[in-house]
Specification:
heterodimer, A: 341 residues, alpha+beta, seven-stranded mixed sheet, two-stranded antiparallel sheet, 9 strands, 42% helix, B: 769 residues, five-stranded antiparallel sheet, 35 strands
Chain lengths: 341, 769
């Protein structure tokens, strides 16, 4: 009898729980059924005492089962409703992630900076120090100490900006060789990337301001074979592939013997194309064994020490790497150019 | 410098190497070739032809001719040359069949210019040849162009014979010498030569010629000169040029009848001495210029150019032929001073061989027999020189040579190739060659054993050397903290949205004045070629300003920066070169405030804790938006808005920082401070101040009054408007205090707060509590 009523309450309550659409409604059901004072089930509990022991026991079991069942149903419904609630709240937070992020865009490093850093890191890993020298140089460091005395016709190779006071704007990074030898002494391995100046009119392929990277190694035994080894290693790292190189005679007063180093054209692999002017080779860098006069002038005994030196046209390398056809862009400050790097 | 393949072939026996292959060999072993051009392409088809008839074509200046073209038979040719006439023997070339004014013209009658013999377009050739004969000595030729820079050190390569010596050595072929020294007449010269300083003129040789007839050179000679870029003038002048191009010995011919006295002086010019030169220019000289002079004064600028007053003319009968040697540096100095580079000066400045002077004269005697038959040499060679000791042979240790090259060498091979280059090799002590240098390489170039490394290396071929890693101790290279730091700064500014620019180191005077700088405080370029490269920059700001004005046409908002050197003039020695960072944010819209704070934020990231101290504005700064930047007590730069009138539109915030100082200050080592174990307490304060009150100053005052327990002060907000007076604003700060030893009681915190308030009130500030 009582059990029937309990069953009835349970099924009607379960239906109300299932249809409760919000936390509040659910709470109302809970209070109506399980509320400590007036809950329907609580009322049944209160009637238990009046029953004979046998019935009392059975009704008790039925009541506990019913209570447990309803509590579980309430909890499940509660969880369900909370989840739906959150879902609805988050649903309202739709966001267009394709909108641009606020704040400044990242800026761009100059292409010469980028290539220069790449080369600096490469040479550091090969044990070369990275040195600096002044842009305004003495005639001695720029010319005389490099075996180019006054009236030497080789001074014609480099149109020079002369300054009041008799100094000059360095025409190459080679004076840093001299400063490096003076500062470090032998043995040494160094590079010197930097800005150099030539007094000439500018056009798409000529600049009065450009960048070079000078390199030098001085040690007890340094040969043409070692120079070739370092050049191949360097160029393979720069071009990220094996390169074939060749040396041919070239004249630079601060080296003896002096070379022009060519690489097999990377565009046509040597079969001939407009880039290499059909020769299969591209002239890349001058180099050579350090002239003993240069060592001697920097206080290094050429009977004891030998060296090689090379000069890489950094600006030219940057132009090759990115296919830049007008050298003036590099110092033109035009963001439409700079933002491409 | 241009070299004729045919000319080289005269000296190199059995030359079977085609011009292209020869060019490659020269490039790989001797000097850089810049290309080959074929000249005289028509010459192998040209032949002498007689004009059988010539009738004018009505209404034109043209002639319809019928010519006997030898092997080409009879041809009708239309010709426009003024000297076209019946009976003329000229050159016929079977090209260009076309109808001209109704006449079918088959081939052409050629001028010397059309055949590339000389540059004369005015008339067709007049030949003294059998009909059908080719023009003697004129055939298509390949001209190899050598990069002058690559033979700066090789005086001998400035002539065909020297280049032929290289080719013969490379190809292991015999070399023919065009000079017959036994043609030199014995006896004393019939002109006296007086050299004041043998240091400046080691040798002067001269011949006197009589009965010379001035006329055009034979066509073969004109063709040779034209092919290598020289202008044929007359037989005597062409002869001197020919010998120069052949033997690298510049020569000069004076009209002997125009000289005063019987002595040629070689001396420094007198102060203000004048010379009108062959080019028509008058030069005013000084004692740094060496001149050739007669009794009346300068007649030539030694090694550079001859004088007009004694030039060869059609009337010349007697000639003084000069073949001299001058000190390279003096010729160069004069050539630079008078701004005149000639074929002679280019050769002399490379240090020519004194032994070559009489060789040139001997060659002249031989050539004269063809160029001016009947000319006679009067007397012997006038030859003044200082006897120089023969150069000391170079000791070449073969093991040293191997170490330099990085490959093994075979003694016999080394000896053979040196001898082919005409070095004299004698084995001395075992393993060492004693190498005597030929005179034409000894003037300057080859003096030490290292020079021989090049000779051996290039002749063996550098491709025979295998790249080899050196055995050297592994060691970490010395650091370059400056570069490392500058690279960090670059990365930081790029991350903050600034794009890196590279500007020139030059400024114009006008640009400097715009910024109120004194042009005289700048290092000045003494030989600028443009007005915008007169001064060296002592600020990066003008460059950035220019970048802004150029980019604002394309962009509404952008940030740029540069890291470069400011060059500061010093009394003596080298200027100071100070690395600076200049950065800017430009906005077309807005009042400039946002950009200034964005720039400030980047500066604070570079220099955490840097102070901005408002300061008087300079002429290029916004009058009330300029401040010094201080970091750790030192002035490191400037934060300002660019004077808006300097921009076409918009606003630009700028930062200018001395990176050498910043790097010095950034280098302080850090030490760990224990994390505070006791909780901090915070309270807010609002200070009422004037509208232009600086928050930074209030913050400093609060800090001064807060005492040692202050942890931090944070600016919260500022406010102006009711209920404040119109000239007032309120600034709110959050003050955080704590102790490393205990939790502060509310009484202690209150005490600090009261102390601050009292202190601020003493300074005249009201606090909203």
């Amino acid at each position: 009898m009582l059990e029937d009523s309990i069953q009835e309450l349970v099924s009607s309550s379960l239906a109300r729980i299932a249809s409760a659409a919000s936390g509040e409604e659910l709470e109302a059901v809970r209070v109506a059924v399980l509320g400590r004072k007036d809950g329907a089930l609580t009322q049944f509990m209160k009637q238990l005492g009046k029953l004979p022991p046998e019935e009392k026991r059975q009704a008790g079991i039925a009541l506990n089962t019913a209570k447990q069942k309803l509590e579980e149903a309430l909890e499940a419904r509660q969880k369900h409703l909370a989840g739906a609630d959150l879902q609805a709240r988050l649903e309202a937070e739709w966001l267009d992630l394709t909108l641009p992020a606020p704040g400044p865009r990242r800026g761009h490093l100059h292409p010469i900076t980028q290539i220069q850093r790449e080369l600096e890191e490469l040479f550091l890993s090969l044990g070369f120090a990275v040195l600096d020298g002044p842009e305004v140089e003495t005639e001695y460091h720029n010319f005389d100490a490099l075996n180019i005395p006054p009236e030497h016709p080789a001074r014609d190779m480099q149109d020079t900006f002369w300054l009041d006071g008799g100094n000059l704007l360095r025409t190459h990074t080679s004076p840093v060789q001299v400063r490096g030898m003076e500062k470090l002494g032998p043995p040494l391995r160094m590079i010197a990337p930097g800005r150099v100046f030539r007094n000439e009119s500018i056009d798409a392929s000529h600049e009065h301001t450009f960048y070079q990277l000078e390199g030098m190694m001085v040690d007890r035994e340094v040969s043409v074979a070692h120079l070739l080894y370092f050049m191949k290693t360097l160029l393979a790292a720069i071009f990220k592939r094996e390169v074939t190189v060749r040396l041919r005679p070239g004249y630079f007063p601060f080296v003896e013997p002096g070379f022009e180093l060519d690489i097999r054209c990377l565009i046509c692999n040597g079969s001939g194309c407009p880039v290499c002017k059909q020769s299969g080779w591209v002239e890349l860098l001058p180099c050579g064994l350090v002239n003993p006069n240069v060592l001697r002038m920097s206080g290094i005994d050429p009977e004891e020490w030998n060296g090689f030196a090379f000069g890489l046209g950094l600006t030219r390398l940057v132009m090759m790497r990115y296919g830049i056809d007008d050298i003036r862009l590099l110092q033109g400050g035009d963001l439409r150019f700079l933002e491409q790097f | 410098l241009k070299f004729s393949y045919q000319w080289i072939r005269e000296f190199v026996g059995d030359l079977d190497c085609a011009p292209g292959a020869l060019e490659h060999l020269i490039t790989m072993k001797t000097a850089e070739c810049e290309g080959i051009e074929v000249t005289g392409r028509l010459l192998d088809r040209a032949c002498a032809a007689r004009v059988e008839s010539a009738e004018p074509i009505a209404g034109t200046h043209l002639w319809k001719t019928v010519v006997d073209g030898g092997r080409y038979g009879r041809r009708t040719v239309v010709c426009g040359a003024p000297n076209c006439r019946t009976g003329l023997i000229t050159a016929y070339v079977p090209i260009g069949k076309k109808v001209i004014h109704g006449v079918e013209s088959d081939g052409m009658l050629a001028s010397a210019a059309e055949l590339e013999i000389n540059r004369d377009h005015s008339a067709i050739l007049e030949l003294d040849l059998q009909v059908g004969a080719p023009i003697p000595g004129c055939a298509p030729d390949s001209i190899i162009e050598i990069d002058n820079k690559s033979i700066t050190h090789r005086p001998d390569l400035w002539g065909h014979h020297g280049m032929s010596r290289e080719v013969a050595a490379i190809l292991e072929r015999p070399l023919r010498d065009p000079v017959k020294l036994d043609l030199l007449p014995p006896g004393a010269g019939s002109v006296r030569v007086q050299i004041e300083d043998f240091g400046l003129c080691p040798r002067y040789s001269a011949l006197v010629l009589d009965n010379v007839a001035i006329k055009p050179s034979p066509l073969w000679l004109q063709y040779r000169l034209t092919a290598i870029g020289l202008n044929p003038i007359n037989n005597i002048v062409d002869m001197t040029n020919y010998i120069m191009a052949e033997l690298a010995q510049p020569m000069h011919a004076f009209d002997a009848d125009l000289l005063q006295g019987d002595t040629i002086f070689v001396r420094p010019a007198k102060h203000g001495e004048r010379l009108r030169a062959l080019n028509g220019e008058e030069y005013t000289l000084d004692p740094s210029n060496l001149v050739i002079a007669d009794g009346g004064g300068a007649i030539a600028l030694a090694g550079v150019i001859g004088g007009l007053g004694s030039a060869i003319s059609d009337n010349t009968r007697r000639v003084v032929l000069e073949s001299a040697n001058f000190l390279a540096s003096t010729v160069r100095k004069t050539s630079v001073a008078v701004k005149l580079r000639t074929d002679a000066s280019m050769r002399f400045e490379k240090a020519q061989d004194p032994a070559n002077t009489v060789r040139g004269l001997a060659r002249a005697i031989e050539l004269l027999q063809e160029l001016s038959p009947g000319a006679r040499v009067i007397g012997g060679v006038a030859d003044m020189r200082r006897e120089a000791p023969p150069p000391v042979p170079i000791q070449l240790p073969l093991d040293w040579l191997q170490r330099k090259l990085g490959r093994g060498v075979d003694a016999a091979e080394v000896r053979g190739l040196l001898e082919r280059l005409q070095f004299d090799v004698t084995p001395g002590t075992p393993g060492v060659f004693s190498v005597a240098v030929p005179s034409w390489r000894a003037t300057k170039e080859i003096a030490i054993k290292d020079d021989l490394v090049e000779e051996v290396g290039r002749m063996l071929g550098y491709d025979s050397i295998r790249p080899t890693a050196p055995f050297v101790p592994a060691s970490a290279p010395p650091q370059n903290p400056r570069r490392t730091f500058e690279n960090q700064v670059r990365a930081l500014f790029a991350d903050f949205g600034f794009t890196e620019v590279y500007n020139y180191s030059f400024l114009s005077e006008e640009a400097v004045r715009v910024f109120g700088f004194d042009p005289d405080e700048h290092v000045r370029i003494t030989n600028p070629i443009a007005s915008d490269q007169v001064l060296l920059r002592r600020s990066l700001v003008p460059g950035i300003w220019k970048n802004i004005n150029e980019n604002l046409k394309h962009r509404e908002h952008f940030g740029i920066f540069e890291i470069g050197l400011e060059i500061h003039k010093q009394g003596a020695g080298l200027p100071d070169e100070i690395p600076h960072l200049a950065a800017a944010i430009y906005s077309r819209n807005g009042d400039g405030e946002a950009g200034l704070f964005e720039t400030k934020r980047a500066a604070e990231c570079l220099m955490p804790g840097a102070q901005v101290c408002p300061a008087a504005a300079r002429i290029f700064e916004h009058p009330v938006r300029a401040a010094d930047l201080l970091w750790k007590g030192e002035r490191v730069g400037r934060l300002f808005e660019l004077q808006p009138s300097l921009l076409e539109s918009g606003r630009a915030a700028m930062l200018d920082v001395d990176l050498s100082t910043v790097r010095k200050l950034a280098g302080v080592e850090r030490k760990y401070v224990p994390i505070r174990r006791y909780p901090s307490s915070a309270f807010d304060l609002s200070v009422i101040g004037r509208l232009r009150e600086h928050a930074g100053k209030l913050q400093d005052l609060i800090a001064q009054n807060a005492g040692p327990l202050l942890e931090s002060i944070e600016f919260l907000r500022q406010y102006s408007g009711p209920p404040l007076e119109p000239h007032q604003k309120s600034l709110s700060f959050r003050v955080t205090v704590s102790s490393p030893e205990r939790t502060l009681s509310s009484e202690e915190v209150g005490e600090i707060r009261s102390r601050i308030i009292a202190g601020m009130r003493e300074q005249g500030y009201t606090l909203r509590i």
